[in-house]
Amino acid sequence: MEFNVQRDGLTLAGIYEPADQPTGTIAILMHGFTDDRGYTSSALLVQLAARLRAIGVGTVRFDFNGHGHSDGHFVDMTVLNEIADAQAVLTAVQTRLHPQRIDLLGHSQGGVVASMLAGYAADAIHKLVLLAPAATLKDDAIAGHTRGLVYDPHHIPATLPLNDTLTLGGFYLRTAQLLPIYETAQAFTGPVCLIHGDADQIVDPIASKRYHDVYQDSTYHLLPGASHGLDGQARATVLDLATAFVQD
C-alpha cells in the first residue's frame, strides 16, 4: 500500500508491504545513488522485500528525494538530505505502523545512509544490513573523481553533468568530503551484516572492511565474482544471507 512521507515540503514516494504472518519486525529498505526503490521484479530491493515478507517481516521501500517518484531535483540531493529523508521515513514507520522492531537495509549509497541513521537512532534500530555500502564516496570526493567525473576537489563547481540526463550538485561533493561516516556508524552497537562483491568496480570492498573494523557485532561476507549490483549468480546468495541474518 502507498506509504508516502513528507519531509520539508517534499513528498517521498513510499510503499508499505505487510507480511502475511507478521513477526512484529518492519524493515526499511534504502536504494543507491541514481537508483530507486525498485519497480521491476528483477530489482534487488524488490526481491529482498519479497524474501523478508516470506519470513514475516513487513517492508517499507521509498525513493530518496530527486529519485524515482519522489519530489525534489537530483541536483539538490546530498547524503545529508538523504539521511533526513530516511529519518522522516523512520519516524513515519514508528508512528503509523508501531512495529516491535525496526531493521534497516541499504544498498550502495543507501547503505551509507542506513549506517549513519542507525548511528543517530541506535536506540530505535534492531538490526542493520549493508549491501556494498558506498562509504568510499567520501574518498572519491576528496580525490576529485566521482562516478566518472573528474574535478578539482579544492574548487568544486556549483554543478557537474553526471550524464545526459542528470546533473550532480557541487554541494553533494563538498559535504561528501566531510561526512563522518564511520564515526557516526559505529554508534550503532547492534548486529550488522555486511555483504560486498570482490568484483565491485564502483565501490571498493575496503568500504565494508572498514565498517567491519569499527562495528562491535558484525559479520562480513565478501562474495567472489559479485559486482556492485550484486546480481547474476551472486543474487541468490545475497538474498539468502540477508534473510537469514534478519530472521535469526
From TrEMBL:
Report domain Serine aminopeptidase S33 positions: 28-140
GO MF terms on file? hydrolase activity
Q: Does the keyword ATP-binding apply?
A: no
At the top level, the lineage of the source is Bacteria
Alphabetized UniProt keyword annotations: Hydrolase
GO CC terms? membrane
Q: Does the keyword Hydrolase apply?
A: yes
Q: Which SUPFAM superfamilies match?
A: alpha/beta-Hydrolases
Q: Which Gene3D superfamilies match?
A: alpha/beta hydrolase
What InterPro entries does this protein map onto?
A: AB_hydrolase_fold, AB_hydrolase_sf, Hydrolase_4
Q: What protein am I looking at?
A: Alpha/beta fold hydrolase
Lineage of origin: Bacteria, Bacillati, Bacillota, Bacilli, Lactobacillales
